[in-house]
Amino acid sequence: QLARIQTDSVVATLRELYPDLRFEIVAMATTGDKILDTALSKIGEKSLFTKELENALERNEVDLVVHSLKDLPTSLPPGFTIGAVCRRENPLDAVVFHPKNCGKTLGLLPEKSVIGTSSRRSAPVKKKFPQLEFRDIVSFPGRRGNLNTRLKKLEEKEDFSAIILAAAGLKRMGWENRIGQVRS
User: The Porphobilinogen deaminase N-terminal domain covers which part of the protein (predicted)?
Assistant: First the structure.
């Protein structure tokens, strides 16, 4: 859903710039989207979120793809180029609290409270809140997935006191009201 919102935004901009062109959106699922019960590091493939898109471009099934830069490999296949980079959304991290912790901040959570996050987001927060326990939300089977999945599991289970996500994704989904705290 988040990828579709992002794609719709890019296509809307393209339609404004090129009103005489017709744009058709072709939805695709990638390996990273399909395998949700295994940690990404254990799947053993590179380009988990881009390979199918690259294949569609090579077969001329699509003319361009829209994707988050964070998932792109550091070097593109021969003949491929990044054609545009859209204005960046809010680059900050957002803390979404379990309903039982609504109204709190990370500093007000009890000692040893478990915070779910990705490893790239946890280092600065661990340093500031050493009394909290941080677990990599994407390394646990069944805990990876889109924002909808992560938020649902936060609400329905007692595994985490809070989770840390990209504020931009929550904003794009229209869920800014779920943000309990913003982290720089």
Answer: 1-181
